[in-house]
Design goal:
The chain is 52% helix and 8% strand. With 172 residues, it is mainly α. Helix 1 crosses helix 6, helix 2 crosses helix 5 and helix 2 packs across helix 6. The protein is elongated. 13% of the residues are buried.
């Protein structure tokens, strides 16, 4: 005779505040793709804050969609990596052959085509997470994400991880 033990399900929003009611039912939903590690981070964060995953994800994408557009000012990125002396010589030769004045200019030229692609893809094993939106919220969010030129599944994940990291740094 076998007995099954029921594991108690712990809701992340148990005791936490719920999302304010929408004017219409939240029947629309979007997915985002996260890795197993990212999923653990999101679940851990939601349990700490006592909110549901759907509430967390919906809140951040709606907040982003309703925020003012970011300025179009250029941002300077500096990359640092280690190479052997032989690799450095090859890199300097590549710069000369490609007629580039700096490593930054060369790397920027290599990355630019990937940044101009409409949909970004990478061979990463992901898990989908779903969050619910009202019809009005869904329309606002999908229009905003389409204007960004980034797939909704990736953009939502990016926002979630940024929000978690920002709060982690704030707590330190």
């Amino acid at each position: 005779m076998t007995t099954t033990t029921k594991k108690r399900i712990v809701r992340p929003n148990l005791g936490g505040s719920l999302r304010p009611r929408a004017e219409a039912p939240r029947r629309h939903f979007l997915y985002l793709d996260v890795t197993k590690e990212e999923q653990k981070q999101i679940h851990k964060y939601c349990k700490q804050k006592k909110i549901s995953v759907s509430q967390f994800l919906a809140d951040i994408v709606i907040k982003d969609a309703k925020s003012k557009p970011k300025s179009k000012d250029k941002i300077t990125i500096r990359a640092e990596f280690e190479v052997t002396p032989e690799e450095q010589e090859k890199l300097e030769l590549l710069l000369r052959l490609r007629q580039k004045t700096s490593i930054g200019q060369f790397v920027s030229e290599l990355l630019r085509p990937n940044l101009e692609v409409q949909r970004l893809h990478a061979p990463v094993e992901t898990t989908p997470l779903r969050y619910y939106l009202s019809e009005e919220e869904h329309e606002i969010v999908t229009k905003h994400m389409a204007s960004k030129g980034i797939a909704a599944r990736n953009y939502g994940a990016l926002l979630a991880l940024k929000a978690i990291e920002k709060l982690r740094k704030k707590g330190k």
